Amino acid sequence: MAEAAVRYLRAAGAAAPVEPLPRPELRCVGEDERAPVGQAEFRRVLGNFATGVAVVTAPAADGESGPAGFACQSFSSLSLDPPLVAFMVGRTSTTWPRIARAGVFCVNVLADHQGELCRGFAVSGADKFAGVAHDAAPASGSPRLAGALAWIDCTIHAVHTGGDHLIVVGRVDALGTGEEDGRPLLFHKGRFL
């Protein structure tokens, strides 16, 4: 990706082309090493940053019994040109492989009244769509949840590693809003606001 950006900048006639940075050396903390920051302290401090909450959904891929989805608080816009968004998902997620096989997804930005819906999508192994009103997003056919403030319909563009998570980049194919006057569901210090 960095090389492609450099080629683009050179072709566009940029005065000082950007050279790709060397890839940093990343490794896990060894069994005999102390982590530089404890996980509990990391969660406590980062919990002070309030985030929006979304549900990422995908249609059933070939051989799957139904659609896939999970609650996500690590979603962000990434680029205007091309239109890209990103979300992070744990490498141990059992839902992510199903979304990856589908190759498409829809981000459903939740409204403040959808806390229980979010909890339902945060569990593993249950039929997360039982009793959940939804229709098909226009480009991907991914479930678009009723009552969501906004929806972003995407094709998987790239996947990058990030420690114990994956960084999923999606190219936006369609998007829209639901409840115009609704308020977002926020997560702060381990609870919904």
Largest pleated sheet: 7 strands, antiparallel
How large is the radius of gyration? 19 Å
Identify the strand order in the major beta sheet.
3-2-6-9-10-5-4
Q: Structural class per helix/strand content?
A: alpha+beta
CATH superfamily, called what? Electron Transport, Fmn-binding Protein, Chain A
* Beta-strand fraction estimate: 25-35%
CATH-defined architecture: Roll
Order of helices and strands: HHEEEEEHEHEEEEEE
CATH class: Mainly Beta
Task: From the 3D structure, determine the CATH topology.
Answer: Pnp Oxidase, Chain A
**Oligomeric state of the chains in view:** single chain
Number of helices: 4
First-last Cα distance? 38 Å
Report on the architecture of this protein.
- The protein has 193 residues and is of the alpha+beta class.
- It has a single domain (49-192), classed as Roll (Pnp Oxidase, Chain A).
- Helix content is 17%, strand content 35%.
Question: How are the SSEs placed, and which strands pair?
Answer:
Layout lengths: L1 H10 L27 H8 L4 E2 L1 E5 L9 E5 L2 E5 L4 E7 L5 H7 L1 E6 L5 H8 L11 E3 L6 E3 L4 E13 L2 E13 L8 E3 L2 E2 L1
